[in-house]
Amino acid sequence: MKIAVVGSGCAGLGAVYALNEYSSHEVHLYEADSRPGGHANTIKFTNPDNGESTMVDTAFMVFSPPSYPNFTRLLRLLNVSVAETSMSFSLTRDNGQFEWASDISSFFCQTSNLFNPRVWRMLWDILRFNACARRFIVEYEASPTANEMTIGEYLTKNGYSDAFRDDYLMPLTAAIWSTSPETCATGYTAQSLLRYLHNHHLLQLFSKPLWLTIKGGSIEYVNKIVDSLPAGAWRPSTPVTSVSSHVVDGKHRVTLVTHDGKSEEYDHVILATHSDTTLQILSAGGLVTEEERRVLGGFSWTKNEAVLHSDTAVMPKNKSAWSAWNYYTYSKPQEKGTVTGNSDIVTVTSSMNVLQHVDITKYGPIFSTLNPRHDLKHDLIQARVAYDHPAFDASVSTQLFSLHVDADD
């Protein structure tokens, strides 16, 4: 059979690999961008001081084998080398007035925090939250109201402190989902967050699974799949505008149309694209059902910019707090007149020196910052890349449930 895969992110690449490796089908891979990989985007970084260059990731950077079993097996089949990495986290508030980091040695990186009751209450609530979260997941698993309680409501109901909310959980959640803390608190369900943290083993202090990063960057696995395609099968810079289905000589056929008006016939087409793109392609071809329109249209996306640079101004003032993931926020006035909470812009800096073991003495500091609040020094910026991230709000849980039901049917 002749099969087209649309989209060369992880899902599309996985489909192409499986089809080429375990079948004799003719497979073509379409991609709107000029490069394959989607969020697996490895960029060359050059040390401005000595000209030394290395490859670093800007979006997808780490994975945990227990949470990514299929992806882990794919890397093993491709013989792609991996290395252990850190998942340390830090928070900087108000230009360094308050800072903490997740490692035991750096939690009290500011000595004054040893005598700050707010910090000790936050630490107690972290322990309590981790212990109670699993019970909540089990109790609400089959509850019809599981997707009704927001994160903010869960925290209020269970008496968690403002310090825990504003200086730990909301920054952590915003960093994970690239969404503003306020949106996370009021628009996302407690069930979705707690299940995510549980599935990724982020609710346990001890016996945590290893987190890994790909040596040489995620481009290593991307290139191994794309380079193995036959001549003419890889079709970059070729956006697909529509697919339509019909019957020819009693056989089911799918017509795929690209942005330049060219069309090609296939036996099957796999759409491995974001939900909004998938809906647009199906609608243009007249194939979308009302159920598909409801489910695919129920997902929303947020746009974020990642900047690859070497400006240390985005990192914690206290260097002992420098972590793999570094969250930067400003306080904002609350309704009660107090000054707490978090700014609406999500600013997270990934230290590639920590995450991907890049030698800082040879290549200098290397950071990938999502939505930088600082005006970064222009001569220290090496790349700007826009990414779309899914919003894991309450509607997503409903749509994912619908997908599971449809799959079972």
UniProtKB/TrEMBL annotation:
Highest taxon of source: Eukaryota
Record InterPro entries: Amino_oxidase, FAD/NAD-bd_sf, Zeta_carotene_desat/Oxidored
Domain Amine oxidase: 11-279
A single MF term (Gene Ontology): oxidoreductase activity
Name of a matching Pfam family: Amino_oxidase
PANTHER family given in the database record: AMINE OXIDASE DOMAIN-CONTAINING PROTEIN, PROTOPORPHYRINOGEN OXIDASE
Stated name of the protein: Amine oxidase domain-containing protein
Origin species: Serendipita vermifera MAFF 305830
Top-level taxonomy: Eukaryota, Fungi, Dikarya, Basidiomycota, Agaricomycotina
